[in-house]
């Protein structure tokens, strides 16, 4: 009896060990597969605020930059981009692909009288200044003159500084002043808004009077680093979380505003083009 019992016991232990080994192997394979997926998504997807595109992968974005943006970027814009890259707040700059887009858009609509709210070192300003005719104008506003002056020598060297009327200070009082004078109504062909997101709706109330019927207002960062679709408990940076509600409120308001036609583009951090129709 004893040897048979022992044989049975040994067979049972052997079976258990085999099952254990199989389980271990399966869990290792699963772990490897999951890790690979994780690593791929970590490496391939945008993880951080500051990525200038909402595309699926950095590689695809790099492809756009290297294939069609950088080779065609005007020399002064390249110089300004490289200069800005050394500045501590370079996260704020307009990306090169968006600069190229704005430049093309302004030419397409034959923009002449333009406005920009939020200049920083002037990359989108230069894209605009290079696109409009020699007698074109840009009313440019920013609370910070220092950063504008950082990029100004490059703009001057490009021979387009005479088109710019820079006003230092908050934009809202300037807009109020403009609205007061009827002759400014419907006088702007293009307005680019890239400043304090919590004021976009206040700007919109005034800008809709100032842009001409058929003219464009471009609101920048309307996808706000993708945070507009982040779940409520998502770990967002403080400032992303703070401005997110304002951006979402703006997007909702623009979507139902009968005075404009809109088009939200996933260029840069999202830009919503509003064409005034009445
Ligand atoms: N368009 C710029 C470019 O191409 O580099 C980037 C602009 S940056 C994202 C936002 C700018 O808005 C900052 O330079 C900031 O000083 C400015 N700003 C913030 N609040 C403002 C306000 N109330 N009026 C005017 N400018 C403001
Ligand atoms: Ca922006």
TrEMBL record:
CDD domains: AdoMet_MTases (cd02440). It comes from the Eukaryota. Pfam families: Methyltransf_3 (PF01596). One of its GO terms (molecular function) is caffeoyl-CoA O-methyltransferase activity. One of its GO terms (biological process) is methylation. Keywords: Metal-binding, Methyltransferase, S-adenosyl-L-methionine, Transferase. The keyword Nucleotide-binding does not apply. It catalyses: (E)-caffeoyl-CoA + S-adenosyl-L-methionine = (E)-feruloyl-CoA + S-adenosyl-L-homocysteine + H(+). Gene3D superfamilies: Vaccinia Virus protein VP39. Its cofactor is a divalent metal cation. InterPro entries: Cation-dep_OMT, SAM-dependent_MTases_sf, SAM_O-MeTrfase. Belongs to the class I-like SAM-binding methyltransferase superfamily. Cation-dependent O-methyltransferase family. This is Caffeoyl-CoA O-methyltransferase.
């Amino acid at each position: 009896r004893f040897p048979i019992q022992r044989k049975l016991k040994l067979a049972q232990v052997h079976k258990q060990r085999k099952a254990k080994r199989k389980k271990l192997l399966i869990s290792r394979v699963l772990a490897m597969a999951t890790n690979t997926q994780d690593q791929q998504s970590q490496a391939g997807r945008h993880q951080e605020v500051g990525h200038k595109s909402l595309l699926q992968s950095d590689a695809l974005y790099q492809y756009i930059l290297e294939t069609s943006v950088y080779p065609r970027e005007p020399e002064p814009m390249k110089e300004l981009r490289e200069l800005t890259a050394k500045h501590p707040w370079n996260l704020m700059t307009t990306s090169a692909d968006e600069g190229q887009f704005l430049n093309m858009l302004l030419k397409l609509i034959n923009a002449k009288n333009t406005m920009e709210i939020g200049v920083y070192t002037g990359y989108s300003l230069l894209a605009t200044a290079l696109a409009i005719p020699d007698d074109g104008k840009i009313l440019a506003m920013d609370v910070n003159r220092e950063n504008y002056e950082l990029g100004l020598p490059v703009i001057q060297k490009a021979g387009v500084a005479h088109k710019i009327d820079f006003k230092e200070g908050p934009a809202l009082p300037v807009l109020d002043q403009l609205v007061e004078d009827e002759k400014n109504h419907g006088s702007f062909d293009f307005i680019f808004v890239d400043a304090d997101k919590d004021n976009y709706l206040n700007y919109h109330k005034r800008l809709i009077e100032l842009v001409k019927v058929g003219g464009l207002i471009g609101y920048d960062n309307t996808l706000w680093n993708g945070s507009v679709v982040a779940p409520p408990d998502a770990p967002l940076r403080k400032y992303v979380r703070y401005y997110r509600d304002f951006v979402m409120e703006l997007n909702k308001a623009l979507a139902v505003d009968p005075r404009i036609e809109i088009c939200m583009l996933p260029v840069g951090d999202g830009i919503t083009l509003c064409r005034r129709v009445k």
